[in-house]
Amino acid sequence: MDETLFRQLAWIDYRLAVIFTVLIPIGLLIWSFVAKVESMQRLLGIYWKVASLLMITVYLMIPSWSVGYLTGLLARILIPVSLWFWIDLNEEIRDQPASKLKLCFTSWRWAMTAYCTVGALINVPFVSCAFSAATRQGVYCQVWLEAPTRYQQLFHSNSSPGFLGFLGASGLVVYGVYLASFLAFRLARQGRIAIEQ
Questions:
Q1: CA 195 – CA 192 distance, rounded (Å)
Q2: pLDDT at residue 29 above 50?
Q3: Interval 139-170: pLDDT, tens
Q4: I need a surface site. Which of 50, 95, 114, 173 has the fewest CB within 10 A?
Q5: What is the pLDDT of residues 31-51, one digit of tens each?
Q6: Whole-angstrom Cα distance, residue 91 to residue 112?
Q7: What is the spatial distance between Cα 30 and Cα 78, in angstroms, rounded to a whole number?
Q8: What span, in angstroms and rounded, lies between the C-alpha atoms of 73 and 54?
Q9: 16 near 73, Cβ under 8 Å?
Q10: Three-state helix/strand/coil letters over 101-146
Q11: Quick check: 71 and 136 in contact, CB under 8 A?
């Protein structure tokens, strides 16, 4: 693929990520609070916990740490799972009376599922960027670092890439501990029920 076209597609992906993974969920969360739809609030709370891996990925990629290529792929796998995994929340949302909020929420869930699935498939070839220093120096791996670098320039211009990477690594450790404890304890105890009994 032509380098210029690839760069444009990578930037489109980052822009879509901001829209689908940040702006729309914030709007839906506010709307669900105003409408007092607790099931959507709970699911969006779970979504934000899982999707925080995307922000961790940005901070890991600012100093060009290879693990960022893996966490980005993992986030695109975990997000759709988190949106559809919970039996009780799915039933409560399905049983909600028809409304604009329900239509927008359901449309967003399907759009996020499609976006993350396609994004994961596109990112699979770039897993090699995490394991090979020579590959990581190639233009196609470097393109994925441009948006995180721009993010640093806009929001953290006085911070070093190493410090921001440290913040990302710290976030990844906390995320990993939380995910491991969820898989080891809560999932075994509650299964696919989101609301604790």
A1: 9
A2: yes
A3: 889 999 999 999 999 999 999 999 999 999 99
A4: 95
A5: 999 999 999 999 999 999 999
A6: 19
A7: 23
A8: 9
A9: no
A10: HHHHHHHHHHHHHHHHHHHHHHHHHHHHHHHCHHHHCCHHHHHHHH
A11: no
